[in-house]
Every structure is written in structure tokens, then in C-alpha cells.
Amino acid sequence: MSGARRASWLAAGLILGAGACYCVYRLTRGRRRGGRGLGPRPARSAEDLTSGSYDDVLNANQLQKLLYLLDSTDDPFITERVLVTLGNSAAFSVNQAIIRELGGIPIVGKKINSPNQSIKEKALNALNNLSVNVENQIKIKVDSAFLALFDSHVAAEILLRALTLFQNINNCVKAEGRQAAQPSFPQGSLFSLLYGEECVQKMRALGSHHDADVKEKAAAITPAF
């Protein structure tokens, strides 16, 4: 084989080798970036979605997995992680609607009745974000026991989150130009509960609460009655 031909084959080999190395680099680089290279990404389990390292926007299928896990688990650690993930997701308006359509609001709402204070707090956080959506407010049902959250002996962290939920609802009522005192709320709804006489008395009592933040929030809500 002539020297010129050998040089030609050598050059071709180098080009092919470089191309193969580049392809390997692209694939491994894609994997290091979380699997965004060539090929499908593995499906995430509900537990994976609560790990704290998953930073993608959740879709309806993933939110459904989380809601199923929340509804079926008795593990307080898993319950807290799911509620945190759902609460963070509910900060986005599109997820507020998806969670409602999946029937997730009552599932989250049930966790308010948990004796575990941390679970109760995280459930209220999630509901606070969900309640920014007016349509979601209609779906929030938490019974007459909900008013117990506004008792002065309740931990300040829980009180503040319950009052924030009330504030979100109250702001939407005012934005719609409705009068809280008018008897137009359906009997047994969250609205009739929050604007009923028992809640009025509780808000006035919280106006003298020892915690300054609780007192401020209660005072801001009281003029609505």
C-alpha cells in the first residue's frame, strides 16, 4: 500500500474514532444531567418525587401518584414528605387545577385532623396554596371541627397557617364584591362555617392573643364580619 493511501486510511480512522468518542461523551453528559440525553427517562415512583432532589415540574400522572400515596400511607414521615411536595407544586396555578381535578383537595384536607402537629401544619400549608384558586375553595370541606384550629391554646404555627387559609378565602370573597355577612353561602360549606357566629367569636378572642403575628392576622380578618 502506498504511503499516500496509508495516510488516507489513517485520517479516516481518526475521524471515525473522534466521532465515536463524541457520541459517548454526549450520552454520558446527558446522563449526568439527569437523563436528558438520548433514550427514554425511567419512570419516577411516588417516593422518588418526594426525595427533595427532583426539580422538574410535576405532571398529572406524577401528582396522581403522590395523592394515591398520601391517601394510602400511615407512615408519618412519608405523609409529611408528600404534603411538602404537593404544597410546593400547588404554588403553580396549573397544578392547583390539576390537583382539584384529580380529587386531591379532600385527600389533603383530611390530614388537617391528624394528631401529628407537623402533618397538620404541612397540610395547612398545602391547602393555603391550593386556596388561592377560587374554584378550589368550593372543594375545601374540613367539618365543624375545623373551627378548633382557631382556639387560643393551639400552637402559634398552626394558628398562623389556619388564619392564612382564612385570609386567602376572605381576599377572594372581597375581590368578587361579595359581602361576608350576607346569607348567600351554602349551608355546611366552608364559607358558612368561617363566616358563622362561632367563628366570629373566635376571631375576636384571638385579637388578644399573646403572639403578635396571630393577633395581627386575626385583627385583619375581623372587619370582614
Task: Please provide a written account of the structure.
By secondary structure, this protein is mainly α. It folds into 2 domains: about 45-140, Leucine-rich Repeat Variant (Alpha Horseshoe), CATH 1.25.10.10; about 145-225, no CATH class. It has helices at about 5-30, 45-50, 60-70, 75-90, 95-100, 105-110, 115-130, 135-140, 155-175, 190-195, 195-205, 210-220. It is globular. About 30% of the residues are buried.
Topology (SSEs and partners):
Blueprint: H1 3-32, H2 46-49, H3 60-72, H4 76-89, H5 93-101, H6 104-110, H7 117-130, H8 134-139, H9 156-175, H10 190-194, H11 197-206, H12 212-221
Helix pairs in contact: 3-4, 4-7, 6-7, 7-9, 9-12
Give the structure's gist in a few sentences.
The protein has 225 residues and is mainly α. The chain has 2 domains: 96 residues, Leucine-rich Repeat Variant, CATH 1.25.10; 83 residues, no CATH class.
Provide the β-strand percentage band: under 5%
Largest β sheet strand count, sense and barrel closure:
none
Quaternary status of these chains?
A: single chain
CATH topology of the largest domain: Leucine-rich Repeat Variant
Helix/strand order: HHHHHHHHHHHH
Shape: globular
Low-confidence stretches: 7-42
Residue share in helix: 55-70%
Which descriptors apply to this entry?
225 residues, 12 helices, 63% helix, Leucine-rich Repeat Variant, globular, mainly alpha
